[in-house]
Specification:
Helix content is about 50%, strand content about 15%. It has a three-stranded mixed β-sheet. With about 140 residues, it is of the alpha+beta class. A hairpin with a 2-residue loop joins β1 and β2.
């Protein structure tokens, strides 16, 4: 069986062919944005739309949005230098779904808390709850 490229399938789908140029343009703009932004910002910003010379950029939080607004004139200049017809940048905050901001927290249980959990687990009937509480009672998280 011979395989087709994904864009060949998309071009064949009804109604999709009119969206392909815009989708390709957005991918190109996202690639350029990733190249022109400092690494510290590139992971937290993405091009959301492009229409009538205006690029809409989503920032993961208000701090990133503020930095992008400060870089706005330089970003605009770089897009134009790449041959794109860009007249304005619109930067909006749009938190990413499913990603935690910062590092996950690890609970540190005292010996007293672990003993209390073990006592609780011993009083429970065999169940998933008992298994979970027993595992929590045995877990030791070292302090850094």
């Amino acid at each position: 069986m011979h395989s087709k490229k994904l864009d060949a399938y998309l071009a064949q789908a009804d109604g999709i062919d009119s969206l392909m140029p815009q989708a390709m343009r957005l991918l190109e703009l996202r690639h350029i944005l990733g190249e022109v932004l400092p690494d510290a910002l590139a992971d937290y910003a993405t091009v959301a739309n492009y229409r009538h010379g205006k690029i809409v950029i989503f920032a993961a939080n208000s701090t990133i949005a503020a930095k992008l607004k400060l870089l706005g004139p330089a970003l605009l200049e770089r897009f134009v230098a790449r041959g794109l017809q860009v007249t304005a940048l619109d930067i909006d905050v749009q938190p990413r779904r499913g990603t935690a901001q910062g590092r996950p927290k690890a609970a540190i249980l005292s010996d007293t808390a672990r003993r209390a959990l073990a006592d609780l687990a011993s009083q429970l009937a065999e169940s998933e709850l008992k298994t979970t509480i027993s595992a929590m009672a045995q877990r030791k998280v070292s302090r850094r």
